[in-house]
Specification:
The structure holds two protein chains of two kinds.
Chain A lengths: L4 H4 L1 H20 L10 H26 L7 H29 L8 H13 L17 H25 L4 H20 L11 E2 L12 H27 L1 H12 L1 H6 L4 H27 L1 E2 L6 H14 L4 H19 L6 E2 L4 E2 L1 H19 L6 H7 L4
Chain B lengths: L4 E10 L2 E11 L3 E6 L6 H8 L7 E6 L4 E2 L5 H7 L1 E4 L11 H8 L6 H5 L5 H13 L15 H14 L4 E5 L7 H14 L4 E5 L3 H7 L2 E6 L2 E6 L1 H5 L2 H8 L2
Parallel strand pairs in B: 3-8, 3-9, 6-7, 7-8
Antiparallel strand pairs in B: 1-2, 1-4, 4-5, 9-10
Helix pairs in contact in B: 3-6, 5-6
Classes of the chains: A mainly alpha, B alpha/beta.
Chain lengths: 388, 246
């Protein structure tokens, strides 16, 4: 009687097929690996969109399925980006410094190299010493561990404090937003140890692969992002299937009733919050090497609000909805704000989309919330909502 | 025979209003008990205290052979200890099927990781079928709970309680809004359940209480006014006063 996970969830298979077809299509059309119809910068854009889709499905799990409107998941995303960015910046600066110093007659001591790297990185914020949080920056492995551990621990501690006090609904949203804002404001300071509002830059240059052209690097990241999205999708679909999914959705609909069934609701929320924060961190770690730069503005609460908007437009409580909403809105957004959208001349006023796009987005969000709570994903419900 | 649940000297007040006042109550296992009383007598607050939703200002709530004090324990802990509760308004998970509702309630380990790696068992689905049979829901197993009629939702909730296999069942107005035929079925389910465990039914409807044919506790202003058979308590002048008004 036990059917396999995929057989019980055909939509997962469909999603993976679509994702594979899309990845293949881009590969065939890209500059580095195919016909050259898709530019390297657009490959990067698509790769970034895949990472945003990954953080969006995490948001959908925590909000659409578990009912926690977190306005902090983009902060976890940013932390993942910072963690990997520290290694990228350190290793690349090290390579440059070593090369510069090697011209000298006397070989530089390790301390001299270290000082030179620190001056190079932190000169911009008036410092020449490594802050404590850069202790592991020379190790890719440790920084990759931090990508997972820092968002995980932060979510665990924050969630434990918040859920234990039974803060729910809009108050919890405000609390998560406050956490995000506090983090962003802290990072804006020059002595935060992460270069203040300069952030980390040059992240698109991967140490050890300087000779490899960006068109190839961007393809590699695009594939990695596609694999991560596929894996994340399967992971969340697995968590949401069966009894665990039942309990998570039940907590969204009536958490006190779930308590009287004997489930410790706080543990479940903490599990979901932490797991999704970790996935958000991984998504960020893949995103920022493609973006090339990260700064505290990326972490500001508005980013997490966008995340909620994407998920809402795509349709809450549907993993594929989050993917569709994010891909649709973020690509449309880059089209409108990129200046490619034609301005609309009304005679008395010219609508310039770079400015009016946000208004349009806001109105669509309101319209979706009021009239189409199922979002775009609703269109696909017919095919996926099988009778059980 | 020692009591399964024993409350003594329990009091709680909300903003100066004494909802429960020096309440003493006990129930054995198995036993069927009805609690009646006018509005504001403290019936629901009594259930809130036993299930951990409300913390009393004073008094003791002792549970089981080892007389564990339930005060200060979480709702989920108390539920796992063996106390199931049915709310006045039927609260089932409407977005999910009847089967999923029952599966969630089945007595199994409740930790997140145990649930994550939980595998359906033949035994579990047999239990679900049996409970569905018992509560007249066999035909409805694959339907969403939100599509059920009011009476069926009430039964589903009772079914979920039975699936938890509690030693004590607290049932708040199970017959509210039911048709006479549905009431009869509900009486049957409760009487059957009380053969193997303790069942406390809070009810307004005297006719329904009469059908249950069990010991009755009358609550008034947060304490016990009378206790005994229904005929005995309804002849009590104080009870008549409370019900007919002074």
């Amino acid at each position: 009687m036990q059917r396999s996970f995929i057989a019980n969830n055909p939509s997962v298979l469909w999603f993976l097929l679509c994702l594979a077809a899309f990845t293949l299509g881009v590969t065939v059309l890209a500059e580095a690996t195919g016909a050259g119809l898709i530019s390297t910068s657009f490959v990067k854009t698509l790769g970034k969109v895949l990472c945003l889709c990954l953080v969006a499905i995490a948001m959908d799990v925590v909000w659409g399925y578990c009912g926690i409107l977190s306005l902090g998941h983009f902060a976890f995303f940013g932390i993942g980006g910072y963690a990997v960015g520290m290694w990228l910046m350190y290793a690349r600066t090290e390579a440059i410094v070593v090369e510069n110093l090697s011209a000298r007659l006397i070989p530089p001591t390790p301390a001299e190299v270290n000082d030179a790297i620190a001056t190079q990185i932190f000169g911009v914020v008036g410092s020449s010493e490594f802050p404590l949080i850069w202790a592991f920056a020379d190790s890719l492995l440790l920084q990759l561990l931090l990508v997972v551990l820092v968002p995980g621990f932060l979510a665990l501690i924050f969630g434990w404090l918040a859920f234990r006090s039974r803060v729910t609904g809009v108050y919890l949203s405000i609390l998560t937003q406050a956490m995000t804002l506090a983090l962003a404001l802290y990072l804006f300071q020059n002595d935060s140890g992460l270069r203040g509002n300069n952030g980390l830059s040059g992240l698109q240059n991967i140490p050890g692969f300087e000779a490899v052209p960006q068109s190839v690097v961007s393809m590699a990241f695009f594939w990695a992002s596609a694999v991560a999205l596929g894996a994340g999708y399967v992971l969340f679909a697995r968590v949401l299937s069966g009894k665990m999914g039942s309990v998570i959705r039940a907590i969204r609909d009536d958490e006190s009733r779930v308590r009287f069934l004997g489930y410790h609701v706080e543990s479940y929320k903490l599990f979901v919050f932490t797991l999704t924060a970790i996935v958000a961190g991984i998504a960020g770690a893949l995103y920022y090497p493609q973006a090339g730069i990260i700064n505290p503005a990326e972490i500001a609460p508005i980013a997490s609000i966008y995340l909620a908007v994407w998920v809402a437009i795509g349709g809450r409580g549907r993993l594929y909805g989050a993917v569709i909403g994010t891909a649709f809105v973020s690509l449309l957004s880059s089209w409108f704000t990129g200046g490619s959208a034609p301005n609309v001349n009304l005679g008395f006023y010219t609508i310039q989309w770079t400015e009016w796009w946000l208004v349009l987005l806001g109105l669509s969000f309101v319209a979706v919330t009021l009239f189409f709570p199922g979002g775009i994903g609703m269109l696909f419900d017919k095919f996926t909502r099988k009778s059980q | 025979m020692s009591a399964l649940l024993e409350l003594s000297g329990v009091s709680v007040s909300f903003d100066g209003f004494k909802a429960i006042n020096n309440l003493a109550f006990q129930i054995n296992e198995p036993e069927l008990r009805a609690i009646i009383g006018p509005n504001g007598a403290g019936k629901t607050t009594f259930m809130d205290i036993v299930t951990g939703k409300t913390k009393p200002d004073e008094g003791r709530v002792l549970w089981g052979e080892k007389s564990i004090n339930l005060i200060g324990r979480s709702e989920s802990h108390i539920a796992r200890a063996g106390i199931g509760r049915k709310f006045q308004k039927p609260t089932v998970f409407e977005e999910q099927t009847v089967r999923e509702n029952l599966a969630m309630a089945l007595k199994n380990p409740r930790g997140p990781f145990e649930v994550l790696f939980y595998r359906k068992t033949q035994n579990g689905s047999d239990r679900i079928e049996a409970i569905a049979e018992q509560t007249n829901l066999t035909e409805q197993l694959t339907r969403k709970a939100g599509e059920l009629s009011h009476g069926q939702k009430q039964w589903l909730e009772i079914g979920m309680l039975l699936a938890q296999e509690p030693r004590l069942l607290l049932v708040d107005e199970p017959a509210a809004g039911m048709t006479p035929a549905e009431r009869e079925k509900t009486t049957e389910i409760l009487v059957e359940a009380a053969k193997t465990r303790a069942v406390v039914v809070v009810e307004h409807d005297m006719e329904f209480v009469r059908r249950l044919n069990c010991k009755v506790t009358v609550l008034h202003e947060g304490s016990v006014l009378a206790e005994g058979s229904l005929d005995h308590v309804t002849q009590n002048p104080e009870v008549i006063d409370v019900y007919l008004g002074r």
